């Protein structure tokens, strides 16, 4: 292993911010970029919303709706660290895409609205991180206005999520008017000076020992005393800090701040970078792959088409797992058995793409996709082979039959639907014995259907006929030599094939699934493909 490679790995931090919509993820992302010097003036969120445009918004539909539909990737440097933020869509309908993004990170920042506490979407995303053992750091946001108390929030995280929380800092002041944070490890106070800029610039602050009487004077004796009491209570009754437990996902370091005013953003960023893990090993068919293994390896976790309508291109996003990536290198695409030359790798800062010359484990690189890549594909150095662990498949819960309104547009229709399925935007099924005139589309949420309709119209010029179907469950069939036509009790169900021709049954509810299971005891009905 070369010193160069180790050094590059050690300084990388690749993470996602998980939260419920409106908790302030876009704002925090923007502020991290501001502190990293990647942007110089944070547009206040108001201005952003007015323009319907944020640094991480790419697609037209996102701008129109003001929601983030696709995950984007942002890279910047701070204090010698190379940071990769994988933005995840906040809307609950896009959880599938979010889950896949979480496969590519080494840690997650859980953003919580101080007034609302732990919300539904946060719970779901937390669960995925927990299952995967991803270390989770908590940032309690919106401290500039009234919210639950810091103790209440700690308790809520522990009770609702079942993870212990360790406050790394503690807010100083009274609810709705906090003045600073107390750093527990250094026993230091940091007071922020609100300069009235609404967080457009880096916020000035003064730092010093908690015992410095100057601070007592500024914050007042009562607040100083209350702070000392809180800290004594935390030290006595709270968890002890144990980085090993953090890295195992059992303890979440907790920070307080306001992404809008920048209060607490810098202390959070610095501490987070210090504690969060550098790129971690990934499981593969050849055992764990260590990042400092000199053989290059990566996997595709996201495919996105037509990010720039002017180019009509399709990008596959890979996460580098080991070795060094250099522009123009040849790699082996394990699933197809082909060798590919990677000539135009791209890196991202929102809409600015730049060609990169080299990249290291933890980095995300966008590759032009001639239609060869699928989610979960492995790329390795020439002459080697292995496959990274399979991506979880999320069984769709809503179904609809779609076909092109204009039958002359059949070719574009098939191309559009196929490409969006490869991107993982929706899941596509075909009715048994049916041709390509219509498809059965499966989605986790309603918004995915809307995106499908929107994108087919705007990117492929195809208007859809759209017929919602009454099914809610998909089950992959497993049986030896099964003749699908002999399945019994299927009157209320539908048999289809997935994109890889595997048989799938769609059911209206659990009851009808059980009925069919009972009538076909030799068949197993699985919530995911048998070979997934
Ligand atoms: P999201 O990406 O998680 O969905 O959230 P986003 O950053 O878009 O923020 C959602 C709302 O929360 C925005 O207000 C934003 O200004 C506000 N917000 C974010 N961070 C803070 C904070 O630290 N304190 C306070 N008080 N508010 C915060 P909005 O009303 O939806 O938009 P706008 O009226 O500000 O344009």
From TrEMBL:
Entry-linked SUPFAM superfamilies: EF-G C-terminal domain-like (SSF54980), P-loop containing nucleoside triphosphate hydrolases (SSF52540), Translation proteins (SSF50447)
Single GO MF descriptor: translation release factor activity, codon nonspecific
Coiled coil: none
Location relative to the cell: Cytoplasm
GO cellular-component term (any): cytosol
Gene3D superfamilies xrefs: P-loop containing nucleotide triphosphate hydrolases, Peptide chain release factor 3, domain III, Translation factors
InterPro entries found in the cross-reference section: EF-G-like_DII, EFG_III/V, G_TR_CS, P-loop_NTPase, PrfC, RF3_C, RF3_dom_3_sf, RF3_GTP-bd
Described purpose of this protein according to its UniProt entry: Increases the formation of ribosomal termination complexes and stimulates activities of RF-1 and RF-2. It binds guanine nucleotides and has strong preference for UGA stop codons. It may interact directly with the ribosome. The stimulation of RF-1 and RF-2 is significantly reduced by GTP and GDP, but not by GMP.
Protein name: Peptide chain release factor 3
């Amino acid at each position: 292993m070369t010193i160069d490679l180790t050094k590059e790995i050690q300084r990388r931090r690749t993470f996602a911010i998980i939260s419920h919509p409106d908790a302030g993820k876009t704002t925090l992302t923007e502020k991290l970029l501001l502190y990293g010097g990647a942007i110089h003036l944070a547009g206040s969120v108001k201005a952003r919303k007015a323009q319907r445009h944020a640094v991480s918004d790419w697609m037209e539909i996102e701008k129109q709706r003001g929601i983030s539909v696709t995950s984007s990737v942002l890279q910047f440097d701070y204090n010698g660290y190379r940071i990769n933020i994988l933005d995840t869509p906040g809307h609950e309908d896009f959880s599938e895409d979010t889950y896949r993004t979480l496969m590519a990170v080494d840690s997650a920042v859980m953003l919580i609205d101080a007034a609302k506490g732990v919300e539904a979407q946060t719970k779901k995303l937390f669960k995925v991180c927990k299952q995967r053992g991803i270390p989770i750091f908590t940032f309690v946001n919106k401290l500039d206005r009234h919210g639950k108390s810091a103790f209440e929030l700690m308790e809520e995280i522990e009770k609702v999520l079942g993870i212990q929380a360790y406050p790394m800092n503690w807010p100083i002041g009274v609810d709705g008017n906090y003045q600073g944070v107390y750093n527990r490890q250094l026993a230091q106070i940091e007071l922020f000076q609100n300069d009235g800029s609404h967080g457009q610039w880096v916020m000035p602050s003064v730092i010093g020992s908690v015992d410095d009487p100057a601070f007592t004077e500024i914050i007042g004796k009562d607040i100083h005393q209350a702070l000392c009491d809180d800290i004594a209570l935390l030290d006595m009754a709270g968890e002890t800090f144990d980085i090993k437990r953090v890295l195992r996902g059992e303890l979440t370091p907790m920070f307080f701040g306001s992404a809008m005013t920048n209060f607490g953003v810098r202390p959070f960023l610095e501490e987070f970078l210090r504690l969060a893990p550098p790129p971690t090993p990934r499981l593969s068919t050849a055992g764990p792959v260590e990042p400092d293994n000199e053989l290059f390896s990566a996997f595709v976790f996201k495919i996105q088409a037509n990010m720039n309508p002017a180019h009509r291109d399709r990008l596959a996003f890979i996460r580098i797992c080991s070795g060094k990536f250099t522009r123009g290198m040849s790699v082996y695409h394990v699933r197809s058995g082909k060798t590919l030359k990677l000539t135009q790798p791209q890196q991202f800062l929102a809409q600015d793409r730049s060609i990169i010359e080299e990249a290291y484990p933890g980095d995300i690189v966008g590759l032009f996709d001639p239609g060869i890549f699928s989610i979960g594909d492995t790329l390795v150095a020439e002459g080697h082979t292995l496959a990274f662990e399979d991506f979880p498949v999320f069984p769709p819960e809503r179904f609809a039959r779609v076909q092109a309104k204009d039958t002359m547009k059949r070719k574009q229709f098939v191309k559009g639907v196929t490409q969006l399925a490869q991107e993982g935007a929706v899941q596509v099924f075909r009715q048994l014995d049916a041709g390509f005139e219509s498809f059965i589309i499966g989605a986790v949420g309603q918004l995915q259907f809307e995106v499908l309709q929107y994108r087919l119209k705007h990117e492929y010029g195809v208007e859809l006929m759209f017929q919602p179907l009454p099914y809610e469950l998909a089950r992959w069939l497993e049986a030896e030599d099964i003749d699908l036509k002999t399945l019994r009790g299927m009157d209320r169900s539908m048999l289809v094939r997935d994109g890889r021709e595997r048989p799938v049954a769609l059911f209206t509810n659990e009851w009808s699934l059980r009925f069919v299971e009972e009538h076909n005891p030799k068949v197993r009905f699985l919530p995911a493909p048998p070979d997934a």
